[in-house]
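Q: My labmate handed me this sequence with no annotations at all. I'd like to see what the chain might look like in three dimensions before we decide whether it's worth expressing. Could you predict it?
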Amino acid sequence: MEENKGQRAKTGGAVSDLRRSWQTWAEDRVEYQRKNPFSNDDRLASRPLHAQKGDPAYGRPPEGSKTEQRGKDAHSHVEKEVEELCLIIRSTGQKGEDGHVSVTFGQLFETYVTISNKVVGILLRARKHGLVRFEGEMLWQGKDDDVVITLLE
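A: Here is what I predict for the chain of 153 residues:
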């Protein structure tokens, strides 16, 4: 009989642990859905409002999330590619009378395409950060081979 009680206690403990684990998961899920802007669950009507325009958290992933980390890693990778592009321009281009190094898009494309297939995207990013200057909104291989790209650093 005491053996039966011990076995029930062990089973009761396992069920209790399972119940506690399930309850924790359910509470976490409700909290997750409360933050989910696509959730239409009426039971969560008292959920806090999501970040509004002008709020520093608007359009940003939650702090400490994997999404935030992936964004930081991607940003770092693009920065390195921009730096590498500037080094390629510096090494393949020619110094002009104004002291800035310049290269044509065709020459840069032929040199840089062996390193990365994102030449135009990286050039646009470098221009956005004020590192290079060139005419036009977009550069097309063949059509814009004679466009001069000037390194501003």
